[in-house]
Structures are given as C-alpha cells and as structure tokens.
Design goal:
Blueprint: E1 10-13, E2 20-23, E3 29-32, H1 35-43
Antiparallel strand pairs: 1-2, 2-3
Length: about 55
C-alpha cells in the first residue's frame, strides 16, 4: 500500500536561459534566476502566491 501523495512542487530550467520556472502545488507559477529564491518562494506558501510573477 502506498501513502497518498503530498504537496508537489515542480521546477524546470528554461532552455537557452539562466531562468528556472517553478510551479507550486497550488498552481501558482514563478520565474527566477536564483534556485534559493525559487525555493523560498515555493516554501513561503501562501505568501507570494498570486499567480505568475
């Protein structure tokens, strides 16, 4: 038996750039160059989760 899935966060590299595109479990999206800034944004839920920034 498997445990139910928890919150899912996705970070993709935007090919040809230095950008990361993140999608939060709530559906909000964010683009950033700094991986630390990306994770801070994602884990700061719900602050900053007003959609694409």
């Amino acid at each position: 038996m498997t445990a139910p899935a928890g919150e899912i966060y996705r970070v993709d590299w935007v090919p040809g750039t230095d950008l990361l595109h993140g999608t939060c479990h709530c559906g909000a999206e964010h683009t950033a160059e700094d991986p630390v800034a990306m994770w801070e944004w994602m884990l700061g839920h719900p602050e900053g989760h007003q959609g694409v920034e």
